[in-house]
């Protein structure tokens, strides 16, 4: 099975965004200024490498997304204890099904481990916790979610960069303008933000595209590549205090989430 990493464009997006950021319309904390912000962004974006045709297609159905703002302000589960977090996220069920998924996708996980040095356990832990092994990818319009957060004052610069990345994915055919995902614009079976698709996306099934939604091979290979990009060392352990736990820290900033990935992965891998 072909596992090809596709990169390029992320550094250019970062550079171009930094040049024009000072001239952006004012951010806002409610919907009142959203339309003006979007129109200003659309005027600037062609100078930053996004074609007018892509902008027209991508923004055709973009709206201020209140569900995204509610989710952004209400991330309470990351403050739970480890035991409570595992119960809330269904940790025992993820372990049980993860073992079955490992067996039924043995060739895929073997190929990924040969290529990246990442065993099945942590990948299955991430896959299971993020989307229930692809069973629920989110119900929010991705481009609306990312645009809303780019406009919102809390993390405007960060998500404006994500918006440029999302538009590049639209341009190359790797993100549908109608795609739906998680509330912060995360994409696909392991919930990548758009810029991470550009940086770490891998073509796991060899079809020339990175389809994080329909291709589990692409999603899992990309997740392994993300961990390698955050310092994963082949053959080293990934529990707390071991070298590869630092790579898991790169996946999510919440300590309890990191602990859950390590624990669930260990149970699945039988370590």
UniProtKB/TrEMBL annotation:
Pfam families: SLT_2
InterPro entries in UniProt: Lysozyme-like_dom_sf, MltB-like, SLT_2
Keywords from the UniProt entry: Signal
Domain of life per record: Bacteria
Domain Transglycosylase SLT: 34-239
Keyword Nucleotidyltransferase: no
Signal peptide limits: 1-24
Listed name of the protein: Lytic transglycosylase domain-containing protein
Classification lineage: Bacteria, Pseudomonadati, Pseudomonadota, Alphaproteobacteria, Hyphomicrobiales
């Amino acid at each position: 099975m072909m596992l090809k990493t596709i990169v390029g464009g992320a550094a250019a997006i970062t550079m171009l965004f930094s040049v024009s950021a000072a001239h952006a319309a004012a951010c806002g904390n409610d919907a009142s200024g959203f339309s003006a912000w979007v129109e200003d962004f659309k005027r600037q974006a062609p100078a930053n490498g996004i074609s007018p045709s892509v902008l027209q297609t991508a923004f055709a159905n973009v709206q201020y997304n209140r569900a995204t703002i509610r989710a952004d302000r209400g991330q309470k589960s990351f403050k739970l204890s480890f035991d409570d977090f595992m119960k809330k996220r269904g940790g025992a069920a993820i372990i049980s099904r993860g073992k079955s998924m490992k067996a039924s996708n043995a060739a895929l996980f073997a190929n990924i481990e040969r290529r990246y040095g990442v065993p099945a356990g942590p990948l299955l832990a991430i896959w299971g916790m993020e989307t229930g092994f692809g069973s629920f990818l989110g119900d929010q319009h991705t481009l609306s979610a990312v645009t809303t957060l780019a406009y919102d004052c809390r993390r405007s610069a960060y998500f404006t960069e994500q918006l440029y990345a999302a538009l590049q994915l639209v341009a190359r055919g790797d993100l549908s303008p109608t795609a739906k995902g998680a509330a912060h614009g995360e994409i696909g079976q392991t919930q990548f933000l758009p810029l991470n698709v550009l940086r770490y996306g891998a073509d796991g099934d060899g079809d020339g595209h990175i389809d994080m939604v329909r291709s589990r091979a692409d999603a899992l290979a990309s997740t392994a590549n993300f961990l390698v990009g955050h310092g994963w060392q082949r053959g080293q352990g990934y529990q707390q205090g071991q070298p590869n736990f630092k790579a898991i820290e790169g996946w999510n900033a919440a300590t309890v989430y990191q602990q859950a990935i390590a624990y669930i992965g260990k149970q699945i891998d039988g370590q």
